[in-house]
Structure formats: structure tokens, C-alpha cells
Design goal:
The complex is a heterodimer of chains A (375) and B (553). Chain A is an alpha/beta fold and 375 residues long. Chain A is built from 10 helices and 19 strands. Chain A has a 6-stranded mixed beta sheet with strand order 8-2-1-12-19-18. In chain A, strands 5-6-4-14 form a 4-stranded mixed beta sheet. The longest helix of chain A is centred in the N-terminal third of the chain and has 18 residues, at 70-87. Chain B folds into 4 domains: 4-79, 2Fe-2S iron-sulphur cluster binding domain, sarcosine oxidase, alpha subunit, N-terminal domain (Ubiquitin-like (UB roll), Roll); 97-208 and 354-446, FAD/NAD(P)-binding domain; 211-350, FAD/NAD(P)-binding domain (3-Layer(bba) Sandwich), CATH 3.50.50; 456-522, Arc Repressor Mutant, subunit A. Chain B is globular, with a radius of gyration of 23 Å. The N and C termini of chain B lie far apart (48 Å). The model of chain B has no long low-confidence stretch (mean pLDDT 94). Classes of the chains: A alpha/beta (375), B alpha/beta (553).
Chain lengths: 375, 553
């Protein structure tokens, strides 16, 4: 029997895992990536599982979707743990994530949130200051408590991306630099238009993040994928002290320490984008406020110097992932993670690849079907 | 003059007044200032705050550059370890300074001082930010104790004096780290944050030196020629007794003579280019366009030989190795013969890289100059860039030399002042004519040297390319195999350029390697994307800047 020809659109973590899963399942796989505007390439390696307060504040209407998907986030973190072993070390550390409270109101909010998350099977606990002093003595004195989510962690995305890319190449995934501008169904399969050529495939996996909506427009769905350019900062190395992924109950921040000793500060502060082919640029206010907040929460890091900032793209949809074949064509399978796309990427990529190969898999992703966006 | 005493790793060190830590430690025979994550030793390299390799811990505060820190009485200085303990307590800083001058000049060298003087004389309110504690820049290098060694320092002292009497506010020891749209600049001066929103800004940030990348170029004792010159001219410290100087260009000869006069033995001055007598026509053209400077060069060479120095043309450094307390430097002549000499210090300068970070960040248009191997910035006759109100002068635009920087400064300063409502910027004809002469001389000078950057293909694979991340040419080639696309992709694949110097040495090499692999021509976008901070900036300083900006709005 002829090998199915599958083209994966998007070479981030989702597309790469989809491609290598397809190749391992016996497909002939080509992965197309434009290689400019970085999503996974600009990621900072947080493994998010608990509901992010930033997200709850910015997109309150999407919270029910995120909440319902919490077990999926936990599974996604487990998927990364498997990959860490499988790939031979991506500096994954899973000591949990702390969401900090500075006021009683914030702590009360976290307590309620923790209850909802526990109901979805997450390993969460509210810690008082005394308990925090034992595991994070470097926190500012004004922190009165925190929610600890043991499912969370961090990894080195540079290493993960490189090893995943190498694995994909090793199992025969071919890589093409380019941007797919249109998809067309034909009686035999799908035609893909790029700037230079027209390609054909039996199946297509769309792992194009914020670009996915435009690609499948006209296939009976209206996918509201949106690019969200975000800002990150990184310091010079210091002694390894910060074990947890740190967030705040009310304000936008992620803070963690890589195994290089460097501290990465981010958490969704906006950057600007100049379009498809130019890298997103840094806004002064984002850098000032993001880093100042870090100094406020962890004064111990004040004397370290920020040596670099960068901007990357996050993708928002409706809070939940989009996984599975399009209603109008089962030859096109969507693989677009919901919020915290890098965390969800490997799991979403693997499931989408299995679905493309006709394997229903062990996880029911019916709630993530693109059919919910049918027009 | 009173001396200062401090300790370095427990040993007592005496410093002359005004000396940098780097100079005082050099005088005391200390060469290793820090160890890296891979246990390599590092010391002074650039001597001007760029390479971030001379980091020490001062009074428990790590990450301090010895070359930019004043040695003070009672300091406790220790070698920096790879992962220093956090020393911050509460984020505290001095009261922030907010500036809104008519003209903000960034850089206190030949171009910046000249620009500031011209603008102030036209009546504009001028603030000049200088990274160094003593103004004058890299060309005029002023002595910390005010002693004037020669005409070059005297000219610089005159320029600084003129700047002060013109009424310029000079802020020294200021490191600019942020440049944002609409001419918003952020800097730190010690623990004080500075925020500047000028009407016009003149960038005069100069250049830093291009090294000779060979195995061993990161060893303590290997430094740029300019670093050794600063030690001597600013602090009367000799980098070593026996020196080899290599690379290409007139600075190497000048510094060789200065250090020989100071008592050092120049065991070898190795100039990559062939002797000018082998190219009489080019040499004659250079001499005609600048007879005085040509004669000065000849006299310097005679002086060096008289002082016992050896000059070799067509000779290139190919490696440095530790050899007891000394360094074994191996050279190769144009005929292929090799020899190794033992020295205390190897100085290197193989051209210059413009400090164009601010210009690139703000979107100034650039083109690549293959002869010099670096970007050149576009300016109009007024020295204004394509960004309204933003001017650029001197070597940060692409190498042009100090005399040209002075004239460009006068033109930019006059025009910036006029743009801010002071004067009319007429009557610059004589300055423009002089500038044309300087540019002609420069264009005829450099062909006599050999400063085109070396191709990576010609280097041994174990040559360190990225000093900060300790990556060899081989490491970077592996990254190229994966996906060459762009210098940014290569950076993420290998970590090249991710360290404290922010890719200042490896960046141009990475850009050229990607260009070689992809066959794409080099242009502005070939280099690492420009990003804030332009220099590493303390979190506490950002904290203070944020407070100042918040109170303002």
C-alpha cells in the first residue's frame, strides 16, 4: 500500500510533534514553516497547568473553556515529562508553580480558584507565608500567601525545539521553508499554494497557530485565531535559587530560573508587530513594568542585570484548543492549542497526528472539535 | 597624590588615584578576574565596557566590570564565579533624573564633544551622556589624573575644556540602555536612573575593536590594542613587559610606540597587510591626501625600531596558548612559515565595529560595507538620519576616523540646534570642505591595510567565536546544519550571541556564516535583531526608571 502523503503546516512545537508522530506511524511527511515570526521559537518554557490569572482577567468569557480543559493541561504536562525522558533531557523541572497573593482578597480569589482546579484533578494547595518561607525565601515581604500547583514546571525551550527538530529529521520528516497561502480540495486530496509552487497531499495537518484561521477560511469554519505579540526579558546568570514557576494572582507576570542560572521574566506584556515578515518589537512600557514587577515580587534579584529582551507570538482562540478534522473536509486536521500553546503543543500535535492517521487515540477530544466554529 | 588600598581575593592591592580596578589589578600582576561556567579564566579584553569579560564582585556585588569601575579605598574585590549568589535586598536607587534638553548628545568622544560644542554655541540647551568617567572618548583617551602625555591628549583636553566652557551639561559614567520611538532614552548612572526626552538627539557612540579570532584569544593577557592603550594612557599601567601586537591598521603601530616609550618591549608588531612599499601607487595616493599623517606614520615606525621593537608585515596571529605565566603566540607569515614567541600580553586590533545599536534599534537605514566588513548608516548633509530629529556622527555610522567625526559633529550639532530653534545652520562650507578631505584620506588609508573580516572557513574549528557562551566555530557550524535561515535562528539553535556582550563579537561572524550558507547578501537584517537593553541593565535601575515614568504620567 502507498504511504499516505501528509503535509504539516507550521514548524513550531505542535507541528513538529505532529510531523514526527505521523512519520513514526508510517506516513510520508513534509513540514512547511515560514521560519520568521516565532511562536515556539520565542517561547520561554513555562509549563502552565493552573488557570492563569492574566488570562482570566483579559478573557473572562473564555474561562469556562479553560476550566473544562484543565485535565487536558495536566495531561499535556505529563506529555512533556515523557518527551523529556524520550529526547534525552530538555532541562525539565517540575517543582510546581506558585501564584502569589499580596492581599487577603487575592488570597481568597486563589482559594476559590484552587477549589475549582482541585475538582478538575489538579494537585493544588494554598500556602501561607510560613510555608512559602520554606520553599521560596527570596519572595518580597509583602507576599502573604500563594497557590501552589504541583503539576506546573519549566523547561528549556531552545533545547526542546532543537531536539524535537532533530528527532523529526531522523524519522524522515522533510522540511520546507515557505508559507502556505491557500488550501484547495481536489478529488484526490488537498492542494497547497505557496509563493513558489503548488503542493499536493492526501492529508494536511494545520499547526499554524494564529495563522490557522485564515488558512481554513472557506472550509465551513470561522476560526477566530488571533496573534498576540508578547514581551520577554532574561537576566545574566545567578546562583540557582528559584525552583518554581512564579505568577501573581492579579498582575501579569511569569518568573522562573533556567538551569543556566538566568532568570526569565515575562507573563504576557504586549509587544508590537509589524506584520508577517518583521520580528515583533519591544515596547518601553512593557519592559519597565514587567521587570519592575519582578523586582517588587522578588527583591533578591534586583542586582542582576537584564541582558536581553525579545518578543514572540502567543495565539488566542476561545480559550480551548482546536483539534480534529474540519467538518467540510476530513483531509484537513486542525492542531491549534488553546491558551499556553507551548505547554499544550506536544499533546495537541500527537493527537492531531493520530486522528489524521485514523487512530481515535486514548483521549476524547470531542470538545475541541473545529465543528464548534461551523459557519 | 594619595593611593587607595583594596583587597582582591584577600590580597592587598594598591591603586593610584583615579585608576580603574582593571588597571590597579594589572599593576599588581593579577590577570584573571573571573571564571566561566566551563571553568575557563578571563580577564581584561576590550577595556571599554563592551565585552563584559572582566567582571568582578565588589563588596559582595557581582557583575561589576573592572575596566569601568574606579578602584576605591577599602573595597573588597573578589573574582567573579559563574553563578554568583543574589545580593539584592530591597530594590533601592537614587532619585531618578528626568531630562528634556534641546539636544541630547550620546557619547563623549571626538564627534560627541564637537557636536555638543556646536549646538551649545548656537544657544541650545545641551546634555551630553558619556559612558566613561573622564570625557574624551577612545581617540583622545584622557588620563584619569589629568596628566597630558602628548599632542593627541592635549587636543582632547582642549576639546573637553571647550565643551565645559560652552555650557554643556556633561553627565559622566552614564550607560545608556534603552532607546525607544519618539526619541525616548533610558540610562543608568551608578544606581540612578536617567530618562531623557530631548527635542533632538545626536548619536556619537563610536566603535569598538574587531578581534583576531584564533584559538586562545579568550585567555587572560590577550586583549584589544585599545584596552592596552587605555591602561597606559588613562592609568599609566603597562599591560605587560613583553608584548606582541597583531591585526591590522594604524592604531597597532601607534600603541606599539606608546607602550615602547612607556618601557614595554614590543617583541613583535605583526601587520597582516604587506609592506606599503610593495604597493607604491596606493601608498603614494595616501601620502598625497594626507602628507602630515603619512609622515607621522613613517616616523612612528622608525621610532618603534629604535626602541627595539620588531615589525613584521604580512604576518598574522594564528594561535595563543598558555605557557607557564607567559603566553605563547604563534604567527604565520605570508609565505606560510610559522614561529612562536613568548610574551606577557597579546594585543589585537583587526579593524572596528561601529556601536550602532541605538541607530539600528530606532530603525535608521543601513547598508553593508564589504571592504570594512560592517554596516554604514545613512545620513543627509545635516547628518540627520531617516528618523526625524535623530542625528549620527563619527565611527558609529561606519568607520571614518576622529578628524572626520569632529567635523561631522560640528555639522550635526549646528543643525540639531537649528532644528530646536537656535541659529540657522548656515556657513558650514569650510567644515564640509575639510570633512571631504578627511574622508578622502580615510578612503586611501584603509586599502593599505587588511581589515576585511576573516572567513569562518579559514579558522580552526576549535576557535571560540562566542566568548560569553563559550561556543566554538564547530558548535556554530552544527547549528547551521539544522536550519540556516537567519542569524536569529542560528542564535536560538546554538545560543550564539545570548550572553552578556549581546553578540558584539560573535554577531558579525554569525551573520557572515549564515550569508555564506544561504548565499544571501549581507544587509542590516542579516545581523541579530536590535533589542533593548543595549547594554546589560540592573533590574533595580529598571525599577527606578519605571517609578520615574509612572510619577511623570
Amino acid at each position: 500500500m502507498k504511504k499516505p502523503e501528509v503535509i504539516v503546516i507550521g514548524g513550531g512545537v505542535t507541528g513538529t510533534v505532529a510531523a514526527l508522530t505521523l512519520a513514526e506511524a508510517g506516513a510520508s511527511v513534509m513540514l512547511i514553516d515560514e521560519g520568521v515570526n516565532a511562536g515556539s521559537g520565542a517561547n520561554a518554557g513555562s509549563l502552565h497547568v493552573q488557570m492563569q490569572s492574566r488570562f482570566m482577567r483579559l478573557y473572562p468569557d473564555q474561562v469556562p473553556n479553560v476550566e473544562a480543559a484543565l485535565p487536558f493541561y495536566r495531561m499535556a504536562a505529563e506529555e512533556w515529562v515523557r518527551l523529556d525522558k524520550d529526547l534525552g533531557g530538555i532541562e525539565l523541572v517540575r517543582k510546581g508553580g506558585l501564584m502569589l497573593a499580596e492581599t487577603e482578597e487575592q488570597l481568597a480569589f486563589l482559594s476559590k480558584k484552587a477549589e475549582r482546579e482541585a475538582a478538575q484533578g489538579l494537585s493544588v494547595e494554598i500556602l501561607n507565608r510560613e510555608a512559602l518561607d520554606r520553599i521560596a525565601p527570596w519572595l518580597g515581604l509583602q507576599i502573604i500567601g500563594a497557590e501552589l500547583c504541583r503539576d506546573e514546571g519549566k523547561l528549556n525551550p531552545l533545547i526542546a525545539n532543537r531536539l524535537l527538530g532533530a528527532r523529526a529529521a531522523a524519522v524522515g520528516v522533510r522540511r520546507l521553508a515557505g508559507r502556505v497561502t491557500a488550501l484547495r480540495p481536489t478529488p484526490q486530496g488537498i492542494e497547497l499554494e505557496t509563493a513558489h509552487e503548488t503542493l499536493t497531499a492526501d492529508k494536511v495537518v494545520v499547526a499554524a497557530a494564529w495563522g490557522a484561521g485564515a488558512l481554513v477560511h472557506g472550509f465551513g469554519v470561522s476560526l477566530p485565531t488571533k496573534a498576540e505579540p508578547l514581551h520577554m526579558n532574561i537576566t545574566e546568570p545567578g546562583a540557582p535559587v528559584i525552583n518554581h514557576l512564579v505568577q501573581h494572582a492579579e498582575r501579569s507576570i511569569t518568573l522562573k530560573q533556567f538551569s543556566t542560572g538566568q532568570i526569565v521574566i515575562g507573563g504576557g506584556w504586549p509587544a508590537t508587530t509589524a506584520g508577517w515578515s518583521a520580528p515583533p518589537t519591544v515596547i518601553s512600557g512593557s519592559m519597565l513594568q514587567n521587570v519592575a514587577l519582578a523586582a517588587h515580587l522578588a527583591p533578591a534579584i534586583s542586582n542582576l542585570r537584564v541582558i536581553r529582551t525579545w518578543a514572540g507570538m502567543n495565539t488566542t482562540i476561545d480559550g480551548a484548543s482546536v483539534i480534529g478534522p474540519l467538518p467540510a473536509s476530513d483531509r484537513i486536521v486542525m492542531a491549534v492549542p488553546g491558551d499556553a500553546g507551548y505547554t499544550l503543543g506536544p499533546l495537541v500535535g500527537r493527537i492531531a497526528a493520530q486522528l489524521a492517521m485514523g487512530d481515535m487515540g486514548e483521549i476524547d477530544v470531542g470538545r475541541f472539535s473545529p465543528a464548534r466554529f461551523a459557519t | 597624590m594619595t593611593d587607595n588600598r583594596f583587597t582582591f581575593d584577600g590580597q592587598s592591592v594598591t591603586a593610584k588615584r583615579g585608576q580603574s580596578l582593571a588597571a590597579a589589578l594589572t599593576d599588581a600582576g593579577h590577570r584573571t578576574f573571573r571564571t566561566t561556567a566551563k571553568s575557563a579564566e578571563r580577564g581584561i579584553f576590550c577595556g571599554m565596557g563592551v565585552c563584559q569579560d572582566c567582571l568582578v564582585s565588589i563588596d559582595g556585588q557581582p557583575n561589576q566590570r573592572a575596566c569601568m569601575s574606579l578602584a576605591s579605598d577599602g573595597m573588597t574585590v573578589t573574582r567573579q564565579v559563574p553563578f554568583p549568589a543574589f545580593s539584592g535586598t530591597a530594590a533601592k536607587a537614587g532619585a531618578p533624573l528626568t531630562l528634556a534638553p534641546d539636544v541630547l548628545v550620546i557619547g563623549g568622544g571626538a564627534g560627541g564633544l564637537s557636536a555638543g560644542i556646536a549646538a551649545a554655541r548656537a544657544g541650545a540647551d545641551v546634555v551630553l551622556l558619556d559612558e566613561r568617567k573622564v570625557s574624551g572618548g577612545q581617540y583622545y583617551k584622557q588620563a584619569a589624573d589629568g596628566v597630558v602625555l602628548d599632542g593627541q591628549q592635549r587636543d582632547g583636553a582642549d576639546l573637553v575644556a571647550a565643551a565645559k566652557s560652552a555650557g554643556i551639561t556633561i553627565l559622566s559614567g552614564v550607560e545608556l540602555w534603552g532607546a525607544f520611538d519618539d526619541l525616548l532614552f533610558m540610562a543608568q548612572q551608578g544606581d540612578r536612573a536617567i530618562i531623557a526626552r530631548p527635542k533632538t538627539a545626536i548619536v556619537a557612540t563610536g566603535a569598538y575593536e574587531r578581534p583576531v579570532m584564533v584559538p586562545g584569544w579568550t585567555l587572560p593577557g590577550v586583549m584589544t590594542t585599545g584596552a592596552a592603550q587605555t591602561l597606559w594612557r588613562s592609568y599609566q599601567s603597562l599591560a605587560g613587559k613583553r608584548l606582541a601586537i597583531c591585526g591590522s591598521g594604524p592604531l597597532n603601530l601607534q600603541v606599539a610606540v606608546e607602550l615602547a616609550r612607556g618601557g614595554a618591549t614590543i617583541v613583535r608588531l605583526a601587520e597582516r597587510a604587506a609592506h606599503p612599499v610593495t604597493r607604491p601607487l596606493q601608498a603614494a595616493r595616501m601620502a598625497v591626501s594626507g602628507p602630515a599623517l603619512a609622515m607621522k606614520g613613517l616616523k612612528m615606525e622608525w621610532a618603534l625600531r629604535r626602541l627595539g621593537g620588531t615589525v613584521r608585515y604580512g604576518s598574522d596571529l594564528i594561535g595563543v596558548a598558555q605557557c607557564g605565566n607567559a603566553l605563547a603566540a604563534t604567527f604565520q607569515s605570508s609565505d606560510g612559515t610559522r614561529d612562536t614567541i613568548e610574551v606577557d600580553v597579546v594585543c589585537m586590533n583587526a579593524g572596528f565595529e561601529p556601536q550602532n545599536e541605538i541607530l539600528r534599534l530606532l530603525g535608521v537605514s543601513m547598508h553593508y560595507d564589504p571592504a570594512m566588513g560592517h554596516l554604514r548608516c545613512h545620513t543627509d548633509d545635516a547628518m540627520q538620519t531617516n528618523i526625524r530629529g535623530l542625528y549620527a556622527v563619527g565611527d558609529c555610522k561606519g568607520l571614518g576616523g576622529a578628524p572626520a567625526a569632529c567635523d561631522e559633529g560640528v555639522i550635526a550639532g549646528t543643525h540639531a540646534a537649528a532644528a530646536a530653534g537656535f541659529g540657522d545652520a548656515y556657513d558650514l562650507h569650510s567644515v564640509r570642505r575639510r570633512l571631504t578631505g578627511h574622508r578622502r584620506f580615510q578612503s586611501r588609508l584603509w586599502p593599505l591595510y587588511d581589515i576585511a573580516p576573516r572567513q569562518a572557513a579559514d579558522m580552526p574549528s576549535d576557535t571560540i567565536i562566542c566568548r560569553c557562551e563559550e561556543l566554538t566555530l564547530d558548535d556554530i557550524r552544527t547549528g547551521l546544519d539544522d536550519k540556516p535561515g537567519h542569524a536569529g535562528t542560528l542564535k536560538r539553535a546554538t545560543r550564539v550571541g545570548m550572553g552578556r556582550c549581546q553578540g558584539r563579537y560573535c554577531g558579525p561572524v554569525a551573520a557572515r556564516m549564515v550569508a555564506e550558507t544561504t548565499g544571501k547578501p549581507i544587509e542590516n537584517l542579516s545581523f541579530f535583531a536590535p533589542r533593548v537593553p543595549i547594554k546589560p541593565v540592573a533590574i533595580s535601575s529598571i525599577f527606578a526608571a519605571e517609578e520615574a515614568v509612572r510619577e511623570k504620567t
